[in-house]
Design a protein that fits this description.
Elements (H helix, E strand, L loop, with lengths): L5 E12 L38 H13 L3 E2 L2 E2 L2 E4 L9 E4 L6 E2 L2 E4 L8 E12 L3 E7 L2 E5 L6 E7 L6 H18 L11 E11 L9 E6 L2 H20 L7 E6 L4 E7 L9 E2 L6 E2 L2 H9 L5 H11 L4 H8 L2 H14 L2 H17 L12 H12 L5 H15 L7 H7 L8 H14 L1 H8 L6 H11 L6 H13 L2
Parallel strand pairs: 13-14
Antiparallel strand pairs: 1-11, 1-12, 2-6, 3-17, 4-5, 4-16, 6-8, 7-8, 8-11, 9-10, 12-13, 14-15
């Protein structure tokens, strides 16, 4: 069979480190890049007699995420021991949840273009667990070092239904999920530091079939683009194997990002291999229904709701609204700018244009951006009342940003006047610039007079250049049109 005769079936397991000060079951600090093995204690190291005590803040953040996903948060859940050997797992088991997870059900909406808009991906479960330590392979030659600072850091694992049918859908799901978690502020979501990690379960089946094929699990995925590339590579491998008469083994695969290759790691374990049983050192986790309700009521406005509000109340088109809500702090900045200036569309254009370009050229984010929205609103007000042109406004904004980085708080109007950027509306001066522009290019002017109206912009641009962008472009266009139409 050809590749087109097969359908990809994907389910994702997303591991998210929670934004807590201390670990899941002890008071050791959670701090990335701390000296190796400096944030450990008898609980992290699994010393005899050490007993775990659950971090209440981790429970709050996990419940917050579950409620935002639309999951049912269970009043009673339980921690279990998941047994397996790995050098950076000192206990020989991981404390996780198995048959009684914190939450089940839920969904994530993906979209952003016509092909995916409106698709919902089911969430099977969200459970709490602790992270393992870290094996470091590049510190010492011919040796692997173990750093247990990460052992015990609180995680949630979000397991999707096998509803994804392409690598592109998987990428869209992950980006939508990350955006939702960003709004909730439950994690820093830094994939480079391991705060968000993805395992992908993939199988193939004949197009139109309802049954599932044998799945493999792809690990070592540390970017969304890496997930997409790995899924496409594993899909191609499985199709090639089955098409040649072979069968798929249930196994764990590793993705080599640098080589763009999939390779087998080990046979895929089943739940029986882990010998789950309830952790005898931890009592069942029981949550007050009233507390769960209060947590649900305290959720912030989530990205889908915010996007729809931007479309409905601010008359933004779906593409602009979706781009603005991608980052909650960018969305906050935009809303404040739109409120101060009064024109949401203009505010959106500037945030997605000049503001994002400025952020991209700097090391900081919107939280430390030197031009607050009320100051930028002053720049946009100058354009609206005809004091400066759009081109000049961009110069005012650049000067304002530069000055505010060094502590100045000069307003937009003062900068425009000081820099000589205010628009010239004086008829005599505009006539002179128009005369100069026509004299510089009489052949093109003759074509405009003869009826090539598209050339009007050429002369508007020429006048703006001669005026240093100070000429009022609306008046310039009127003058040129009148001159071209004159007998």
């Amino acid at each position: 069979m050809t590749a087109g005769a097969w359908e990809m079936v994907v389910g994702l397991e997303v591991h998210v480190q929670l934004r807590t000060r201390t670990k899941t079951f002890c008071d050791c600090a959670v701090a990335f890049a701390a000296p190796p093995n400096s944030n450990t204690c008898p609980v992290c190291l699994a010393l005899p007699g050490a007993l775990p005590v659950l971090n209440g803040r981790a429970v709050e953040l996990a419940v917050r995420a579950a409620l935002a996903l639309g999951c049912t948060v269970h009043e009673d859940s339980r921690f279990a021991r998941k047994h397996y050997f790995y050098p950076d797992l000192p206990k020989g088991y991981q404390i996780s949840q198995y048959d009684r997870p914190l939450a089940t059900g839920g969904e994530v909406g993906i979209g952003g273009d016509d092909a995916l808009a409106g698709k919902r991906i089911g969430v099977t479960r969200l459970h709490m667990e602790e992270d393992a330590g870290k094996s470091v392979h590049d510190r010492f030659p011919m040796a692997t070092a173990i750093d247990l600072n990460r052992a015990g850091v609180p995680l949630i694992e979000i397991v999707s239904e096998p509803d994804l049918r392409s690598a592109r859908e998987a990428g869209a799901y992950l980006r939508a999920l990350r955006r939702l978690l960003d709004y909730l502020d439950v994690s820093d979501l830094n994939m480079e530091e391991g705060s968000l990690r993805v395992d992908a379960n993939i199988s193939i089946r004949e197009a139109g079939s309802e049954s599932f094929g044998t799945r493999t699990e792809v690990k070592n995925l540390n970017s969304f683009s890496g997930v997409e590339r790995a899924l496409d590579a594993e899909y191609a491998r499985q199709v090639a194997v089955v098409s040649s008469g072979g069968s798929i083994e249930q196994q764990t695969m590793l993705w080599d990002e640098s080589r763009g290759e999939i390779r087998p790691a080990r046979a895929k374990e089943g739940s029986h291999d882990y010998r789950y049983f309830p952790d005898p050192d931890l009592p069942p986790l029981r949550l007050d229904p009233a507390w769960i309700t209060a947590m649900r009521d305290a959720l912030p406005e989530l990205p889908d709701a915010r996007r729809l509000r931007f479309e409905r109340d601010l008359a933004l088109d779906p593409v602009d609204a979706d781009a603005l809500v991608a980052d909650p702090m960018i969305a906050d900045y935009f809303e404040s700018l739109a409120r101060n200036h009064g024109d949401a569309k203009t505010a959106a254009n500037w945030v997605m244009g000049e503001v994002r370009a400025a952020l991209k050229s700097s090391d900081g984010g919107i939280a430390t951006f030197p031009v607050p929205p009320e100051a930028l609103a002053g720049v946009l007000d100058l354009v609206r009342d005809g004091t400066v042109s759009t081109t000049a406004a961009k110069r005012v904004f650049a000067v304002m940003r530069e000055e505010r980085m060094s502590g100045s708080s000069t307003g937009a109007r003062e900068i425009a006047e000081r820099e000589g950027l205010t628009q010239v509306g004086d008829a005599d001066q505009l006539e002179q610039w128009v005369d100069d522009a026509i004299a510089a290019d009489p052949d093109t002017w003759a074509r405009l007079v003869a009826g090539e109206r598209k050339l009007l912009g050429v002369f508007v641009g020429s006048v703006m250049q001669r005026s240093g962008s100070r000429a009022d472009p609306r008046k310039v266009s009127q003058l040129l049109s009148a001159r071209a139409a004159a007998p």
